[in-house]
Structure to design on (305 residues):
């Protein structure tokens, strides 16, 4: 589970666990989003998020007692958690609002701007070096996003602006996650995330809540469990690897979104979405390939004459 040691730049061998954590995280979160989308016509956004958060807590306490007790939830950077909490609320509410009106794959494609934003800001916020080849790959990936979104055409949907704004807030949230993860445990960050979402949900009561349906209990329980696992894996991904390395692998969530969208809602992406997805995934894979090559070169001693 979480390690308390100060993270260092990942070697080529250490990069793969970070990437696998990110891929697993987005799989869990995409499945949870699908469940929330299936109930979005019944419950307001705040109520959806509040009820789902209730089912995150059993997993928080389970992980805590398995890994040292409640002291693993101790906070150190209150300012960092405050900023991160605000961004968690903003990104979550904006994304779920967009999810109500958009196909699952389209909503997921919009949040791909978050990883691009992370990579662009990582040198300034985290002092991480991003070479020109990775900048080029990020630019190509951004063009792929534009191909899917198609601003200025009849295919553009206004609701996607909610998802894009959520992606920007999510990018800043992930940068702060990377920064404070040196002093904070994964479980502490997950617990604070759950608390702020529940608080925001309660604050939305004056705007109206719907009567709870017992048949939705299982959906909420599964969704909460997926969120717990997804956020834990994502936080651990940023702990294990540099933001510029692991962030592009959020792109794999589109694959999950296409599969789940078709199976659950009968949605199939058009050729523009598929073409954009191909470009984005290729750019993300190149970032990993380039990072691996640089790490190998750094640890391989020069040949002796």
């Amino acid at each position: 589970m979480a390690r308390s040691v100060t993270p260092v730049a990942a070697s080529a061998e250490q990069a793969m666990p970070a990437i696998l954590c990110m891929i697993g995280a987005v799989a869990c979160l995409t499945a949870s989003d699908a469940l929330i989308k299936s109930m979005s016509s019944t419950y307001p956004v705040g109520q959806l998020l509040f009820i789902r958060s209730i089912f995150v807590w059993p997993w928080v306490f389970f992980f805590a007692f398995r890994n040292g007790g409640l002291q693993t939830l101790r906070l150190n950077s209150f300012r960092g958690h405050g900023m991160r909490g605000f961004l968690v609320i903003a990104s979550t509410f904006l994304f779920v609002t967009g999810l109500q009106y958009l196909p699952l794959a389209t909503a997921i494609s919009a949040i791909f701007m978050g990883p691009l934003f992370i990579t662009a800001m990582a040198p300034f916020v985290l002092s991480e070096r991003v070479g020109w080849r990775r900048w080029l790959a990020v630019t190509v990936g951004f063009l792929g996003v534009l191909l899917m979104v198609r601003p200025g055409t009849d295919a553009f949907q206004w609701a996607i602006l909610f998802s894009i704004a959520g992606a920007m807030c999510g990018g800043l949230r992930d940068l702060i996650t990377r920064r404070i993860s040196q002093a904070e445990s994964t479980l502490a960050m997950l617990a604070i995330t759950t608390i702020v979402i529940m608080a925001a949900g309660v604050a939305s009561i004056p705007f109206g809540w719907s009567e709870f349906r017992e048949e939705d209990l299982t959906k909420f329980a599964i969704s909460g469990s997926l969120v717990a696992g997804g956020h834990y894996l994502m936080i651990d991904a940023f702990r294990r690897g540099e933001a510029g390395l692991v962030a592009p692998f959020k792109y794999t969530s589109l694959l999950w979104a296409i599969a789940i969208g078709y199976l659950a809602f009968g949605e199939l992406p058009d050729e523009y979405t598929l073409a954009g997805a191909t470009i984005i995934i290729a750019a993300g894979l190149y970032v990993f390939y380039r990072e691996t090559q640089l790490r190998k070169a750094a640890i391989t001693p020069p040949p002796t004459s």
User: Anything to note?
Assistant: The two ends are 45 Å apart (CA to CA). Residues 12-209+217-298 form one domain. The mean pLDDT is 80. The chain has one domain: 12-209+217-298.
